Every structure is written in C-alpha cells, then in structure tokens.
Amino acid sequence: MNNNSVNPFFEKPWNSDSFYNTYEEADERRNSLKDEEDLQVKVKRLSQRFVVKTRSIKIVEEKSKKKGNNANQRSKNTAKPKVDQRRDRKGRKSF
User: Fold this and answer.
1) In a domain, 43, yes or no
2) When comparing pLDDT for 36 and 64, which is higher?
3) CB-based contacts of 21, cutoff 8 Å, min separation 6
4) Per the confidence metrics, is the pTM higher than 0.70?
5) Is residue 38 domain-resident?
6) Taking the C-alpha atoms of 32, 35, 36 and 39 in order, what is their torsion angle to the nearest 10 degrees?
7) Contact indicator for 33, 42 with CB cutoff of 8 Å
8) FRET label pair with 18: which of 3, 8, 28, 71, CA 20 to 30 Å apart?
9) 9-37, pLDDT tens digit by residue?
10) Total domains, the chain
11) What percentage of the chain has pLDDT greater than the value 70?
C-alpha cells in the first residue's frame, strides 16, 4: 500500500453507530457526528431502515515485525535430508 494513488482508508471497516426508520433522523445524527475530528460519517439505506456508519480517519503506522534470532532460522535451513540407508549411491537396494 505504498502507492500514493491508493486510498489509505480503502480496507478500513465501517462501524454501525445507530439505526433509524427515516432518513431525516439518520441525517440529524450524521450532522451531529460530523463535527468530530478524525471521523468519517455516512448514512446507508437498508431495506426498511437507515444506519449511520462511522470510521476513524487517523492513519496508524503499522509496526514492523521483528525477525527472531537468525540462529534459529539457519538451523532449520541447514538440516541434512534423510537418506535411506538401505540404498547405495546408484539407488540400488543394498540388502
């Protein structure tokens, strides 16, 4: 998501704030929440009612994950593969 043309809020979830039977009631709630900083507000129409949805617009930097001890990673990668002891170098059974 380092691309500047991508909206930083694209995958941020919306939270349902409240439900109303008419758009006017929902719009009143939306307008009262609109004054708060760092908050996006919208009214969404459902089949028989309206919902006021909100989400924060603060951009929180993701913490980079620290890698563990490199010795642990090296020991896993350098393990010798198991060799079937009953076969010789040419792959023939030696029993």
Assistant:
1) yes
2) 36
3) 48, 49, 50
4) no
5) yes
6) 90
7) no
8) 8
9) 667 888 998 999 999 999 999 999 988 88
10) 1
11) 57
Distances (CA, A) of 71 to 31, 45, 52, 65, 67: 57, 56, 52, 17, 11
Q: How far apart are CA 34 and CA 10, in angstroms?
A: 20
Rounded distance, CA 13 to CA 1, Å?
Answer: 16
Structural domain boundaries, residue 46:
8-57
Closest by Cα among 58, 28, 56 to 43: 28
Assign 1 a pLDDT band (cuts: 50, 70, 90). Answer: very low
Residues 4, 36: Cα–Cα separation, whole Å = 26
Q: Please report whether residue 23 resides in a domain.
A: yes
Please check whether residue 87 lies inside any domain of the structure. no
DSSP element (H, E) containing 20? strand 15-20
Question: For 38-95, what is the HEC assignment?
Answer: CEEEEEEECCCCEEEEEEECCCCCCCCCCCCCHHHHHHHHCCCCCCCCCECCCCCECC
